Amino acid sequence: MALDTASPTVGDRLRAYAKLGKLSFYDYYLCVLIVALTLPTESWGEPVTWLTLALFVVGQVGVVAATVTFDDVTGVRDGSDARNYTPETGELRDLSRKPLLAGVISVEQAERFGWLAALWGAVFWTLTAVVAPHRPLWVLVLLAVVAVSAVQYSYGLKISYNGGQELLLFASTGSVVVMPYVLLTGAPTGLIVLEAVLFGLWSLQVSLYSNMNDVEGDRVAGRRNLATMNPAGRYRGIVAAVACAEPVAVLAAVLLGAVPAWFPLVLLPVFALRVRQARAGLGERNVLVARILGIKIHRLGVLLLLVANPLAVYL
For the segment 261-273, what is each residue's pLDDT rounded down to a tens digit? Predict the structure, then answer.
């Protein structure tokens, strides 16, 4: 009997699950590098430091994979992904990252994967809390809230469909900078709070442009976010205001003594590219180009923080 070469292989399915969990989108996991280079130098020689960071990021992979998997499940069920990911956007928005749309994985398989990823995240974040040298109650609560609310992003409570998308995205991505730092040191610093705010804003400014592209499909699906609830002109103003929040936060940190006076100079390339992003997305209406630029800005921003943090902390 001839083999059915059209059937997906085990390797095909594993690659599809990796795409479903967005494992190649590593931006969220860069938080542990930021934390590592803001820790007191004496922490570097402690094995528990690296064990805590490793457990945290392994658990974070599960939390993020569950979030994006359930988002895709909901997007397929309500038809929004089919409307928002079209062949015309292929070069700027990779359709291969949506294995549910391609039919490589079924919705039922995706849901099982999502729950397993959520369990994975819960187990490893629990282990993180157990081995961490400090366990303030508020951080333990925050760990649980971030894990549970992330899974509810587009599933269950469907927070992103009910007006909480932007706030949840900003708060959850900012929290992953604060939580491991406090678990290792016991309390946040002004520097780490600023970088949590920046990390959240950088992630948010990728989503804001995605939502601008997806607005019609999201409206049909009943998704209530800032893009669907506001006229186009007002929404562009909101996006511009969020971009302005970056330099304002950095200058406020300087005035409060949280960072040195030279710190804003390190981030000038980020601010310059943010202007370019606004020109592309808000001026020229090339929103997917602006989205891709937002991803690059996020990665550049992290790289600049990795250069600036040792100078700010250890000199």
Answer: 999 999 999 999 9
pLDDT one-digit tens code per residue, 117-157: 999 999 999 999 999 999 999 999 999 999 999 889 999 89
Angle at the Cα of 274 from the Cα atoms of 269 and 276, rounded to 5 degrees: 100
Between 3-7, 148-152, 155-159, 309-313, the lowest mean confidence (pLDDT) is in 3-7
